[in-house]
Design goal:
Blueprint: E1 5-13, H1 17-21, H2 23-36, E2 41-48, E3 54-60, E4 63-70, E5 75-83, H3 89-99, E6 104-117, E7 120-133
Antiparallel strand pairs: 1-5, 1-6, 2-3, 3-4, 4-5, 6-7
Helix pairs in contact: 2-3
């Protein structure tokens, strides 16, 4: 099955609330996640909400990484979407889970841009992982 891209939807729970509130730290972690994926960073945009929470995106030549945080619950919603054979969105996902101090992570992988008929594209859910504990956490 040839796909144009891989999209990982990631739910991080039990994250460090201070880390999720720090807009500069969140930006640095997502930039490093992009590097872990061997992606090409084009630009970034991040915003800190009041009283808490951060939303941001790292625009890649190969697509994007995005995050929305809820420090009050220790939760982060993340997307890792890359195309091309040289990128590894799972490496970005694993890095982010550890960097945000998550205790658990739920992920769904979607292969996107699969030609269903001439000129028509679809997606396929290829991996839906159960909740799992993360080892090697960093704060």
């Amino acid at each position: 099955m040839k796909a144009l891209g891989t999209h990982i939807v990631c739910e991080l729970s039990g994250c460090n609330p201070e880390t999720l509130s720090d807009v500069n730290g969140v930006r640095l972690h997502l930039v490093q996640a992009a590097r872990e994926a061997k992606a090409t960073i084009m630009e970034t945009a991040f915003h800190r909400f009041q009283p808490q929470g951060v939303s941001g995106v790292v625009v890649l030549a190969e697509s994007h990484l995005s995050i929305h945080t809820w420090p009050e619950t220790g939760y982060a919603a993340m997307d890792f979407y890359t195309c091309g054979e040289h990128t590894d969105p799972w490496a970005a996902c694993e890095y982010a889970g550890k960097a945000f101090g998550a205790s658990t992570m739920r992920t769904t992988e979607v292969k996107r841009g699969i030609e269903a008929a001439k000129g028509q594209y679809t997606h396929v859910i290829t991996t839906d992982r159960e909740e799992r504990a993360l080892s090697g956490r960093t704060a």
